[in-house]
Design goal:
42% of the residues lie in helices and 19% in strands. By secondary structure, the chain is of the alpha+beta class. Helix 2 runs antiparallel to helix 3, helix 2 crosses helix 5 and helix 3 crosses helix 5.
Length: 214
């Protein structure tokens, strides 16, 4: 009876962890594939959202590009390291999180999304001559205002937003993959799977022993 109770406890704890405490299960590296964009463009450039598949999943996740110059292609894959914005100690990452949160907010206008995209590009590539040359007319004052707001928001926590740092040499197509920021989908931690499996195994073994004893 004690053994059965222990197995049942393991099973119950793991089930609760999986159902009620989802965690980002993409610690370390993941494989991204660019599937589509949201259909919006500003000037000659696609802007947020860029829709990705993670590790071959059919579920798509919207991210914002934060590196202007590098070229990527539809269907291209590469590996990236996820760095949580909160706790990173990098004020630029916190500013990027604030900016993408404006674009991802329900009901965000097309203008807000476009300004947010250019603001994040300017945040990380401020001296890129091509960025300055391609910036649509009239955007700079709005970008400056948004960057000022972002610099004042670096004490805010963004627990669901990560920076996706590409790993050189892992891209399936030539060139360098870009940096992105956004909210990856939740997934159970491997430890939760292990605990869940241990509980199931324990119950199965006890059930087998009970049948044998009968």
């Amino acid at each position: 009876m004690k053994k059965f109770s222990f197995g049942l406890i393991l099973f119950s704890v793991a089930l609760c962890a999986l159902l009620f405490c989802p965690q980002k299960g993409y610690a370390g590296t993941i494989t991204l594939q660019l599937v589509s964009v949201g259909g919006q463009s500003s000037g000659s450039d696609y802007i947020y959202p860029y829709n990705f598949s993670f590790n071959g999943s059919t579920e798509l996740t919207s991210l914002m590009c934060i590196s202007y110059e590098n070229t990527i292609y539809f269907g291209e894959t590469w590996q990236a390291t996820l760095v949580p914005v909160t706790g990173s100690g990098n004020p630029q990452y916190l500013e990027a999180a604030y900016i993408v949160s404006l674009a991802a907010a329900p009901g965000a206008s097309a203008n807000t999304i476009a300004v947010a995209q250019w603001a994040n590009w300017e945040l990380f590539d401020p001296n890129d001559p091509n960025l300055k040359a391609n910036l649509p007319a009239g955007y700079q004052p709005q970008i400056d205002a948004m960057l000022d707001e972002a610099s004042a928001s670096t004490t805010t926590n963004y627990p669901n937003i990560d920076i996706f740092i590409p790993i050189d040499g892992t891209q399936s197509t030539g060139g360098e993959p870009q940096f992105f920021v956004g909210d990856p989908p939740d997934a159970p931690e491997p430890s939760s799977y292990l605990l869940f499996g241990t509980g199931l195994l324990g119950l199965a073994v006890l059930g087998f022993r009970k049948r044998c004893a009968a």
